[in-house]
UniProtKB/TrEMBL annotation:
Record-linked Pfam families: ROK
Record-given protein name: Transcriptional regulator
Family designation: Belongs to the ROK (NagC/XylR) family.
Cleavable signal peptide: none
Family matches, as InterPro entries: ATPase_NBD (IPR043129), ROK (IPR000600)
Amino acid sequence: MPGPAVGADPGPAARGLVRTAVAPVHAPRSVLAAGGSGRPRPVLVAGVDVGGTKTSAALVGPDGAVGPVVTVPTPVSGGPAAVLAAVAGAVRALGGEPAAVGVGSAGVIDPVRGAVVSATEAMPGWAGTELRSGLEQLLGVPVAVDNDVHAHALGEAWTGAARGARCVLLVAVGTGVGGSLLIEGRVHHGARRVAGHLGHLAVPEATGLPCTCGGTGHVEAVAAGPALHAAYRRAGGSPDVADLRAVAALAADGDALASAVLATGARALGRAVGGLANVLDPDLVLIGGGVSHCGPPWWEPLRAAFAAELLPPLAELPLTPCALGTTAALVGAAGLAWHGLR
Ligand SMILES: [Zn+2]
């Protein structure tokens, strides 16, 4: 899953700091707010990104334009009720009376039931939460929900780096390795809503290494941010190098060990994603998450390993950085809310 940014500054857009004003828009007749004057007033929805540490929300127009972002801590220790209250509070803080709310949340989400199927220890008790109905009770407007990485892919396909593409594979490399597959513009959830967990592909570079899922040998165990930092330490790197951001800074300065560690993780990921591309034949592959800000010492071996894996008809398949930064998931979630209104 996307984690904290490391390495080179991705720029204001990728940091989610862009304060794009949402221009008033005339909504379709079906979503016009009722008003005594009969004059249409701008209709907006709210997009929300619920993560294990923080929750972000913004008003989003029907063209995907994003208003100022409100970010609050996610009160996971208070349990699901506290998290739902925090989400509702963030939406209310936006003002603007959104006509609907879309939520991208950590965890495996069933968008049809509107509930959390399962979640990691990062969000205790989150599994089983009736996300949609709980928020509809608190906010009094329709709510649409999906997983945050799926929402990220939808956001990029709406207004970001995959704009207009129909078949998109998103790879999110941060504290874990996650992903999402869009087919004909829609999320492929799979039979159990688990589709997209590409961090748990077996790769030879990870043989014997424990994975967060309880298994061993999965690409997340060599390619995720914490795995890269751990590999640097295992290889004899200085204990003063506190995190992956510091490893990436060393690699950018030409440090051989830091560069080799980043390259090993990137190559493993690149081969795995290249193999997936052969299976799926997407329009493009998007790469996002904090690790994707590690710069050329990570991107170059990733691209080389990816390209080497591709079948000849896929030789020109783009491997593209995500464009929307930290707003991607809330934009995609807002798109789900708009879809529900139309
Ligand atoms: Zn695993």
